[in-house]
Amino acid sequence: MGMDISTVKKVVEKNKMFDKIFYFVGLILTLIGLAVLTVLFIDLLLKGYSKLNLNFLTSFPSRFPENAGILSAWVGSLLVMLVTAFSSIPLGVLSGIYLEEYAKKNWFTNFIEINISNLAGVPSIIYGLLALGLFVHTLKFGESILTGGLTLGLLILPLIIIATRESIRAIPDSIREASYALGATKWQTVKHHILPYSSGGILTGIIIGLSRAIGETAPVITVGALTFIAFLPSSPFMDTFPFISFKWLFDPFTVMPIQMFNWVSRPQKGFHINAAAAGVILLLMTLAMNAIAIYIRYKFRKRVKW
What we know:
The radius of gyration is 24 Å and the shape is globular. It has eleven helices and no strands. 72% of the residues lie in helices and 0% in strands.
C-alpha cells in the first residue's frame, strides 16, 4: 500500500530538516577552516612584516639575516613553474581527452585509468627519486631547472588528467549527438563543443595542480635543488641571432620552499623572520597565479553559451 498524504509530508519535512542541518554543518566547518587559515596567515604576516620590502625581493641570500633576500629563490620558483606548466598542461589535457573521447573501453584502458588514479596519491618524494634516476643520471639533464620543472610536471600530471576527464565526462551526451547530427567530425565536436564547455573544470584542475607544485620541497631537494645560491640563471634573451637562449634550463636553481626550510633550520631569530616573510611572498605568488587562472576560466565561461 502507498503512504497517505500526511506520512508523505512528514517524510518531506524530515528530509528538508536534514538538508538544513547538513547546510549549516558544512557552512560552519568551512568557516572554521577559513578562520584557521586567516589566523595562520596573519601570524605569518606579523612575524615577517618588517622584512617585506623591495630590498628583500632584490637581494641574494646571505649568512647575515639582515642582508638576506629571496631574489634567486623567487626567480627560480617562477622558472621552475614555467617548465612545469609547459610540460604537464598540454600532456595532461590531451591525455584526458584521448582517454575519455577516443580510447576504446577495454581492460587496457581500465588498467591505465587505475594507474593514473593511483599515481595521483603517490608521495611526492617517490617522484623525486624517479626523476633523480631518469632525468639526472639517465638523460643527463643534471641538477637543473629543467629537471626540477619536469619532476613537478610528473607530480601534477595525474591531477590534470583526472580533472580533464571528469570535466569532459560531465558534458551531456546530447551536445555530442547534436554536433554529430549536423555532420561534425569527432575532432570538430571535441574542439568546438566539448573543450569550451569543459574548460572551467579543466582550468580548476590545472590551478590545483600548479598550487601544489609551487609549494613542494621533497622532489626538488631530491633532484638537487640548492639550499644556498647567490646568482641568477642565464638570461633567456641574447643580443645576437636567434636572440633566445635555453641555457637557463640547465642552470642550478633553488625555490622558495627550500629557501624557507634553510632559514627555519637556523637558530638565529632573524632567519626565522626572513622565513615568515618568504612564506607571505610565496602565498601571494600562489594567489596571484590562481587569480590569473581564475580570470582565464571566467573569460572561457563567458564565451560559452549553453
